[in-house]
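Exercise 7b. Backbone tokens:
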């Protein structure tokens, strides 16, 4: 794990090589309860903060003993649908007699706007959500605990430098606004989602909880992990052209109850992170410091590289109460993105 976080005791911290260094003694932005002030400071300040953190001789504890909280105050949360393999897998499940991809998918990074207030730090338990659902053989919907609770393996980026209403961010300006990356588990109640999502898309099936890693890995440390993304077909429109050199060679894995169930890589994403940001701002919607944007579930083409249970087990198995899911990521350059951990608790009455 490598990156900045926030300690429950107050102040920021740096995690690297299995140790966490308390940075609060450096004062100024490092003594703040969240990363937001540092996020807003811009790329030059980010580089200086990395150097200061790596050479600071403050109190140290093993990463396993550090008590971290949500590293930044989340302003808005947007979740994309950027994996071709994932979108194709789900399309074949939901529309077995039709084209798996809807007509717009290859032309723009499809997304939905989630709930910032239910973004939590790794280690937070997941209370099984309740919701309205209707099986195909039922005459009317019922309300109760989700029976098809799922995890979603995703990569998220954290916005630092904001924009004004009406402005857009071209793909080449991605690193001017984005501070770093986190791992994301966008928990999903598939049965609630299936009943509600037509015609406006996901809502309560997603909004109950989204978990992120406690450490935000700066973009500057992932330069050596950059690769060319898969070739797009058809070529994107002009405002989404470019950004294809922002594929990321980050190995991803999912552990369920201490068993490895999936291994994949973020380099397979069809829509890159700069393209996602460019699309999100293309209509003039402003960025705010602390915006979180996630890639959507990342799945590969090989069996065992799927990033969700509905794909891994073809809809025959979902999360049970007591199950624990752990997501991990590591760049090809050896930089670790930490983990996202969550245990399922029974639904509340």
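Sequence design result:
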């Amino acid at each position: 794990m490598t990156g900045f976080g926030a300690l429950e005791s107050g102040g920021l911290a740096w995690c690297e090589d299995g140790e966490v260094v308390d940075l609060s003694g450096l004062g100024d932005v490092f003594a703040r309860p969240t990363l937001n002030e540092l996020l807003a400071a811009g790329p030059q300040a980010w580089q200086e903060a990395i150097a200061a953190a790596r050479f600071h001789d403050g109190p140290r504890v093993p990463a396993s003993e550090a008590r971290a909280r949500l590293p930044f105050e989340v302003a808005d949360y947007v979740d994309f649908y950027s994996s071709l393999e994932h979108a194709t897998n789900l399309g074949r499940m939901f529309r077995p007699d039709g084209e798996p991809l809807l007509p717009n998918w290859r032309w723009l990074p499809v997304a939905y706007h989630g709930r910032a207030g239910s973004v939590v730090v790794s280690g937070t338990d997941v209370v099984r959500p309740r919701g309205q659902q209707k099986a195909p053989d039922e005459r009317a919907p019922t309300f109760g605990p989700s029976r098809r609770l799922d995890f979603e393996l995703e990569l998220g980026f954290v916005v630092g430098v904001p924009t004004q209403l009406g402005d857009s961010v071209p793909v080449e300006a991605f690193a001017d606004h984005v501070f770093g990356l986190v791992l994301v588990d966008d928990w999903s109640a598939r049965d609630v989602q299936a009943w509600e999502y037509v015609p406006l898309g996901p809502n309560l099936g997603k909004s109950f909880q989204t978990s992120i890693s406690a450490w935000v890995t700066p973009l500057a440390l992932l330069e050596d992990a950059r690769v060319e993304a898969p070739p797009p077909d058809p070529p994107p429109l002009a405002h989404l052209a470019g950004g294809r050199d922002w594929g990321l060679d980050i190995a991803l894995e999912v552990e369920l109850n201490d068993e490895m169930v999936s291994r994949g890589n973020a380099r397979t994403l069809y829509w890159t992170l700069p393209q996602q940001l460019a699309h999100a701002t293309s209509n003039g919607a402003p960025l705010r410091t602390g915006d979180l944007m996630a890639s959507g579930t990342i799945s590969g083409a090989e069996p065992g590289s799927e990033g969700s249970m509905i794909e891994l087990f073809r809809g025959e198995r979902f999360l049970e109460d007591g199950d624990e899911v752990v997501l991990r990521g590591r760049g090809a350059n050896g930089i670790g993105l930490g983990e996202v951990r969550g245990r399922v608790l029974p639904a509340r009455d």
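Instructor comment: The two ends are 38 Å apart (CA to CA). The longest helix spans residues 43-55.
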